[in-house]
Write a structure and sequence with these properties.
5-stranded antiparallel beta sheet, 5-stranded parallel beta sheet, 2 domains, 29% helix, alpha/beta, 15 strands, 235 residues, Rossmann fold
């Protein structure tokens, strides 16, 4: 899962430390850094980041005042040199509270909390009667995708691409393992380390290739037996 974030801090050294920590985590993408609340406000509306690392003590408008002014804030990790603000930060439902100077070890703990909160927002699909669709993030909005429209999913490094029956596709900022957890079993099955296919969209199997309306898809040797079992085919 790629996690977009911004840094809001008027201190250059503090921003540099956070940037250094973020560079060590390839799934975190820094999309902007801001020195005050006005810049942060513009960044939030332009990029709609997943996470904001927000300093509390800033000129003109403090970090807590800024957060209170937002109707739909992203996840917030407060950063400050003053431990006395911790209770205020948690009262505002911040994801974490980092005390400067921020060590990489402590920063990692905060990123784990970020992952947990973001994953908790992903719908978990239990049965076909309960869920028929998922919502995926596309730019600054969430778009509904019906299960029945998905023919297959292709892994692209830390991203995934959903290929749909109307010949369109949607890029999702999550790796294929996370997407696999969102999709309904056994309607969808992993057939290769890079592919998930909807069983109803499979027209034929020829050797280690399965055919769909859009593409011939390879069957990985570690996935073949489960696929044939689900299709009631004797190997």
């Amino acid at each position: 899962m790629k996690i977009s974030c911004i840094i809001v801090d008027d201190e250059p050294i503090a921003r540099d430390i956070l940037k250094s920590h973020l560079k060590k985590l390839p799934n975190f993408v820094l999309i902007d850094e801001c020195i005050n609340a006005n810049q942060a406000y513009e960044a939030l509306h332009q990029y709609a980041p997943d996470v904001m690392f927000l300093d509390i003590q800033m000129p003109i408008i403090t970090g807590t005042e800024f957060l209170r002014s937002l109707r739909n804030p992203p996840l917030v990790v407060f950063t400050t040199a003053y431990p006395d603000f911790a209770l205020i930060g948690f009262d505002l439902n911040s994801t974490d509270y980092l005390l400067k100077p921020i060590t990489f070890e402590r920063f990692l703990q905060a990123t784990e909390k970020i992952h947990e909160r973001l994953l908790s927002r992903i719908p978990k699909l239990m049965t076909k009667t309960e869920k028929t669709h998922i919502f995926i993030k596309q730019n600054s909005k969430f778009v509904r995708v019906n299960f029945n429209d998905i023919i297959y999913v292709l892994a692209q490094r830390d991203f995934s691409v959903l290929y749909l029956s109307d010949n369109t596709n949607k890029i999702v900022g999550m790796n294929i393992g996370v997407v696999e957890e969102m999709l309904l079993e056994p309607s969808f099955v992993r057939v290769h380390r890079s592919y998930i296919v909807q069983l109803e969209k499979i027209h034929a199997i020829m050797g280690n290739i399965l055919k769909t309306d859009l593409k011939d898809i390879p069957i990985g040797p570690n996935y073949r037996e489960r696929l044939l079992t689900l299709l009631n085919i004797s190997s």
